[in-house]
Amino acid sequence: MRVLSKKMEQLEDEVKEMSEKKMLKLIEEYKENELLLDRLHDIQNKFGYLPEEELVELAAEKEIPKAHLYGIVSFYSRFYTEPVGKYKVRICKSISCGMNSSKKILKVISESLGINPGETTEDKLFTLEAVECLGHCGEGPVITVNDKVYGEITEAKALEILEEYIERGEKHERRKIS
User: Fold this and answer.
1) Mind listing the pLDDT tens digit for each residue in 135-145?
2) What is the pLDDT of residue 33?
3) What digits encode the pLDDT tens for the residues 30-51?
4) For residue 154, what pLDDT is reported?
């Protein structure tokens, strides 16, 4: 019995040691991924998007495959691999906003800016995105401009908001909403 008990204790110790090593490895991997996300944010903040040259350099520096890095970038909807507008207009297309005419709002904004969702105006003032829930379901339809939330949007209110941002874009070619 004592031999069996001794073996059980040895096994328990080995399992604990393995678990600790696994946990430490997981923690280290988590820290690395967190640092990687921080670096991606830094690059995007510097350039306004993630230029391919920067991604290639980062992948080489971190000794990870480019495909792995692109997998991370494509997972997050707020990372951009192409230049985007100064103002990112996001329109909620989830069911609650959809029931409150978000498709009409999207159409009005799209026509006014002359771009489709996923595109950027030539003057780089606006990028338009149709996205899933923005987390303000009780205020639908909802749009955001960069991180500012606008709820209970009507077609007229959407045009007013765009006009405000056009006026703020002083360095860009002035234009009026049609």
Assistant:
1) 888 888 999 99
2) 58
3) 556 568 889 999 999 999 999 9
4) 94
Domain boundaries, the chain: 2-75, 87-168
The CATH number corresponding to 87-168 among 3.40.50.2000, 3.40.50.300, 2.60.200.30, 3.40.30.10 equals 3.40.30.10
Phi and psi based region of residue 89 (left: phi greater than 0; alpha: psi -120 to 50; beta: remaining) = beta
- DSSP collapsed to 3 states, 86-114: CEEEEEECCHHHHCCCHHHHHHHHHHHHC
Count the alpha carbons within 13 Å of 173 in the hemisphere toward its beta carbon: 7
Which helix or strand (DSSP H or E) is residue 20 part of? helix 2-47
